[in-house]
Design a protein that fits this description.
By secondary structure, this protein is α+β, with helices and mostly antiparallel strands. It has one domain. About 65% of the residues lie in helices and about 15% in strands. It has helices at about 1-20, 25-45, 45-100, and strands spanning about 110-115, 120, 125, 130-135. The strands form two sheets. It has a two-stranded antiparallel ribbon with strand order 1-4. A hairpin with a 2-residue loop joins strand 2 and strand 3 (about 125). Helix 1 packs antiparallel against helix 2 and helix 2 (about 25-45) packs antiparallel against helix 3.
């Protein structure tokens, strides 16, 4: 009697120890054991235990498939949100760097005021004035 419980315990614990990669195996094995136990409890007949094990195993496999599908959907949604957020952060950083809102560490930005001298071009006289220029070094 003790030997049977030992095997049942091994069948339950073995898939659990292997981790997430065998989630489908864990659900199927657990479903089979529960179904077989339930089938055997009905009439104490091996045929009912086999049918119960089969039904439990199929139910466990279906449940594992549904659970896996939900996990993949959740993972994909999180991945897409993270990717979108990262792209937005990159775009904002590029915009700040390109518009001068954020100084890039590679360049030193300063303003220089220069005087434009008076001149005459095509009989048009331009007065002397000052211009402010952005200079990057």
């Amino acid at each position: 009697m003790c030997k049977q419980y030992k095997w049942i315990l091994i069948l339950i614990l073995l898939p659990i120890i292997t981790g997430c990669a065998s989630k489908k195996v864990t659900y199927t094995t657990t479903g089979s054991l529960i179904g077989a136990g339930g089938g055997y409890a009905i009439d104490r007949d091996g045929k009912d235990a086999a049918i119960g094990g089969l039904v439990g195993g199929l139910s466990g496999a279906v449940l594992a498939g549904v659970h896996e599908k939900k996990e993949k959907k959740r993972y994909r949604k999180g991945y897409d949100q993270g990717y979108t957020h990262a792209q937005l952060e990159i775009a904002v950083e590029d915009w700040k760097t390109n518009t001068g809102k954020k100084e890039d560490k590679k360049y030193l930005k300063f303003f220089e005021r220069i005087k434009i001298p008076a001149r005459k071009v095509n009989d048009v006289f331009y007065e002397s004035h000052y211009e402010t220029l952005e200079v990057y070094q």
